[in-house]
Amino acid sequence: MIRLKRGVMRVLGLGLYGSVSLVALSLNAQHAWAADPLDLGSVEATAAGDDGGEAQPGTAPYEAPTKAPLAAAQPTSVIDQHYIDQHSTPGSDYADIARISPSVWSVDPDGPGLMENQGLFIRGFSDGQYNVTFDGIPWGDSNDFTHHSTSYFMARDLGQVAVDRGPGTAETVGNATFGGTLAVDSKDPLAAQTFDAYGGAGSFGTWNLGGQADSGFVSKSGGTSMFLDAQAMGSDGYLTNEGQQRKNALLKVEQPIGDNTVLTFVTMQNQLHQNVGLGATKQQIQTLGSNWGLSSNPASQDYYGYNQDYIQSDFEYLGLKSDLGGGWTIDNKIYTYAYYHHGYNGLDPNGESVNGVDGNGVVLAQASDVPGQEMKMDYRSVGDIVRLNKQVSFGTLKTGLWYDRQTNSREQYEVDETAGQAITSIDRRMTDALDTIQPYGEVDWKALPGLTLTPGVKYAYFRRTLNATVNQGTGSSLDMSKVYARPLPSAAAHYDIASNWSAYAQVAKGFMAPNLNTFYTVSSNSPGSIKPQETWNYQAGSSYRSGKLTLSGDVYFIDFQNMIGKRTVDGNAEFFNQGGVYYKGVELESSYALTHGFSLYGNGSLNDARQKGTGQWIADAPAITAAYGLIYDKDGLYGSLLNKYVGARYGDTGQTQALDPFNQTDLSLGYTLPKAATNVAPIKAKFTVSNLFDHQGIISLAGYTGGANTPLYWTDPGRSFFFSLEIPM
């Protein structure tokens, strides 16, 4: 352990030393590089980036809700700031933005962004089986690689969301890249000095107030630019007694150093209080309504006062991008992020467990006393991601390293809610850590004019350490560590058929270390019995764009070995081995610019995800998804009518809990007033209707009750209206 900690400090020390040294180097050498300038904007120069060119207002690339970049080497849908600004509601987060993409669907039962997303699925992969990055930095819970959508970034602070439906090449780092990468990027500071006040209100008692200040380009400090966005929002939510109060602030600073280096600093702070249930039974939905969530009865385990969370989170990084001369470039980010969650819940909300006895069978003081649980999960990650590229005669040599260490403390106690949350027994008391190291190397080889071949390899190293005085699931002590490591080769080919038409093919190996949760019922004598999940991904596709048309399509096949399934019982995740799974499908997306400001948009997918041997469908994998609609954008007036269709699927394994297809149609209307002056931002007004046709049916299995294993469900939130106004000050 001491040796590992020293190694951690060496890695971070090298990252810090390298950043400082390169800043000094850039100051000394900036004049020598002046003849070879580098675009050092904050937007990542990746395959997921936009291609620009025809992306002017009124063109198909500009108006398309999603589009595939011409430079992509795998199926990718880019959602740009134009779409985000026009379609986000006061509480929207990255999950609400991403769901318009092919093969993607989500579960947002309390209204858009008004509850932590209860499921965002890509090709049937659930959260924890794909990667999420912020400005290129992988992040998430180390115990199961999932993400908390309402605890980090607000939609209005995002410049782009890219849904990469593939493992990427060797340079794509993260804990679960085989299911794809949801690449979330912050927006850039504005070129002009501005201050905008904004606010909104809508259904379910939803409101938000905030302001954004941009410094503009500050020449006296060498071109500094920054923005600060701070807001507060609240909502009662669609579900009964499941409200949310949230405060969020994000600061981004960019500082050029000479002509060839830029430093970027970002910090995000978020505070969240929410009342969250676990779903409702079919009987409750039928008798109490599709919006049944929590009750106002203090004698019940589903009382909203017993079911609440207090969450504080932050995310910071210091980035350096520099042209070192001689064809060398570097991109380095040192970062940290944290999540502090103190939660409370009734023992079996909306379930059958009786009062008077806690979850471990301890009899409470009175038979009417309400049993509950109190939990804490506090973690912080510290890491560094460095990328070094070298331009050579035949292409580009790429190498880099991602290192992350996340330390986590977790506690849960059974409590007597009636007796003021007096502790009655202990469920878990543990600390754990995950160290991840992923070095990589790859070559972009310009084999022929227009043809780029990209072979590469990444080495994925994970070390889990668990020290539990009371281990979850067993109640006994456990002190163990386990290392998992694999080389992950990849190969991609990209061919420019024409200047606006490209094709690609890709093959890559995927790997994910076992979740910490799978150790909860494993003794220290058999940690090796848990096998990592592994995949081979194969896909090919093509992308075309012009001013009138964007069109892309792809086919994919994924051979998944040792898939770990998950179901929720009494609010706790239970994991099991599903064996092998085959994923395959076809995906299409297109937009077409008509005339007089109108354009058409559509995407669709045919997806198949079944277990090997039995041929049974896995959970939450619809056979069909589609999105389509009409968009108008001209002379400051914007309007869109977009429908998302999600096909039939099963909520659990064994083709059980069949769920019907559903549609959700959203309307967005916006108007940008003419500028009062050239140096003044315009006034903007926006009106959105979510779920226009008021579908309120069951859309997802939420889990099972703890008492009788009764299924719990999430429904589609009913029709909702939101209005927002942004005014320059």
From TrEMBL:
It is found in: Cell outer membrane. The keyword Transport applies. InterPro entries: Beta-barrel_TonB, Beta-barrel_TonB_sf, Plug_dom, Plug_dom_sf, TonB-dep_rcpt-like. It is a multi-pass membrane protein. Residues 72-180 form the TonB-dependent receptor plug domain. Residues 283-692 form the TonB-dependent receptor-like beta-barrel domain. GO terms for molecular function: siderophore uptake transmembrane transporter activity. Pfam families: Plug, TonB_dep_Rec_b-barrel. The keyword Transmembrane applies. GO terms for cellular component: cell outer membrane. GO terms for biological process: siderophore transmembrane transport. Keywords: Cell outer membrane, Membrane, Receptor, Signal, TonB box, Transmembrane, Transport. This is Vitamin B12 transporter BtuB. It comes from mine drainage metagenome. The lineage of its organism: unclassified sequences, metagenomes, ecological metagenomes.
